[in-house]
Amino acid sequence: MQENNAEAANSVSKWTGTVYIFSLVGAFLSDSYWGRFKSCAIFQVIYVIGLVLLSLATQLYLLKPKGCGDRTTLCGPHSTMEISLFYISVYMIALGYGGYQPNIATFGADQFDEHDPREKQSKQAFFSYFYLALNLGSLFSNTILDYFEDDGMWALGFWASAASAFAALVLFLGGTVKYRHFRSSGNPITRFSQVIIAASNKWRVAIPENEDALYEGDDESSRTAGRKMLHTQGFKFLDKAALITSKELGNEKQSNRNPWRLCPISQVEEVKCILRLMPIWLCTIIYSVVFTQMASIFVEQGDAMKTTIGKFRIPAASMSSFDIMSVAVVIFLYRRVLDPFVKKIKKHKGEALGITQLQRMGIGLIIAVMAMLSAGIVECYRLKYASKDQGSSSLTILWQIPQYSLVGASEVFMYVGQLEFFNEQAPDGLKSFGSALCMTSISLGNYVSNLLVSVVMKISTTDNMSGWIPGNLNKGHLDRFYFLLAGLTILDLVAYIACAKWYKGIKHGEITQQLKEEDKCKV
């Protein structure tokens, strides 16, 4: 596509960011209308079609540019049709993958009954193994497919991806009759708007200390998807939406409640719950900026290092396999060693829990700082052994192993912790939205990374300087960019600790009614 390093890094960040923005679309359709199973199936079909189109566009057009081929003449730009087909296909992939991903995570968690102690424990393990499965799939892409694509066999790599996605779709549909299915709970935007407007209409009304004055609602109106949410302190202004005035009392007696003036307290708590999640979610975005460097800046750094060991060449992109192996090892150590050890210690202190989800996310931020410091130090040494004219360095690419491994370790604590946290703390009717929050964090991390690279390049290229991330990294200061990210992550960690201390978890009451056969089909 004839882009330089900074442009290519930004293109990757924009596309990856869009993938995860589409996760909100998938979560909304799933929670509101389609349900998780139907959403998974539809978005997987879109995903497969996008991969097939990309494979065709690559094989027929993108690998056969016009006006070159003699190893001296620069290739001309592709036609508008060819470029359009490329972008249509990759953004269909973004829509399919983004819409599918949060729903499959939540749909998998649906298969475990939280009220069964054994299944509840299995559900906690599910998120770790789900993330491990994602990374094992990536391991194939980042090793086998990378070698094909590094030799120019892009079409083969894309066709292999399309075949894999099709096989996954068939496998998913094969289990249809044995899944537990849950009915969608309606449009959450309407429910949220009703609370905000009802509370605003009563902004002059004082809230009594007696909680009995708050409208509980009947069984059907007070549940969001199965469990009633209990009243909590905080965001007291929103409690006015459930405050029964004399006018609402008359309407209630006549069974004529206006949902835009009076909302059940469980509906109010649904809004409070999402508002409490927002500060925690915002603090995860800077971590995602660190994470996204693996797909862009890390690869560019690796390309500027010695990539051969004897006659064997290591593609820079395949170094992310060390991230994946790190994920696998750390998940095993966490589940088999660290978590049982912490539980044993806390049990002696009378505490039942091991490392909490919020604590794990904090640990992930600390390890992310270590990863950026490691990358910065490696870059200092890479520059020390670099030749500015050749654009490469004699420092072996294997020195990147620590930074990839540290990012992988941080993922286990941050992203697995996020998946568990947002799925557990989201209201029952917004579970897919909870999973989408994790993916949207990655999305905004990519956009922030894109913005950060652009700002850094604009500032650092003044006075005819090459900038921190030029086409020839040997003329730049990529190490300063890594150290900048480490500093930003430290500041983010401080903010995160404050938000985690402030956070109050969701409170559920008893199940208000048994889910009907059409709501839930047990295996």
From TrEMBL:
One Pfam family cited in the UniProt record for this chain: PTR2
Major localization listed first in the record, in broad terms: membrane
Segments passing through the bilayer: 12-29, 41-63, 83-100, 126-148, 154-174, 280-299, 319-337, 358-377, 481-499
Subcellular locations according to the entry: Membrane
GO annotations of cellular component type: membrane
Highest taxon in the source lineage: Eukaryota
Protein keywords: Membrane, Transmembrane, Transmembrane helix
One of the record's GO molecular function terms: transmembrane transporter activity
UniProt xrefs under PANTHER family: OLIGOPEPTIDE TRANSPORTER-RELATED (PTHR11654)
Family: Belongs to the major facilitator superfamily. Phosphate:H(+) symporter (TC 2.A.1.9) family. Belongs to the major facilitator superfamily. Proton-dependent oligopeptide transporter (POT/PTR) (TC 2.A.17) family.
Protein name: Protein NRT1/ PTR FAMILY 7.3-like isoform X2
